[in-house]
Amino acid sequence: MTTLFAFYVLIWPALTLGVLALICRAVIRDRRQAREENRELV
Questions:
Q1: pLDDT per residue over 23-36, tens digit each?
Q2: Of 1, 14, 22, 37, which has the fewest CB atoms closer than 10 Å, so is most exposed?
Q3: For residue 16, what pLDDT band results from cuts at 50, 70 and 90?
């Protein structure tokens, strides 16, 4: 039971890191596309 609880607690930082990486990749891609089209990101 302790192992299961430890896994449950430790999985959240990994999931958070994955979502953060996904958001960062999308922003970088959008920024590059905006720069190529000579327009602002926002």
A1: 999 999 999 999 99
A2: 1
A3: very high
Q: Which of 20, 42, 18 is nearest to 30 (CA)?
A: 42
Q: What is the pLDDT of residue 41?
A: 84
Domains of the chain by residue range: 1-42
Tokens 């720069």, residue? 35
* pLDDT at site 42: 85
How far is residue 41's CA from residue 19's CA, in Å, rounded to a whole number?
21
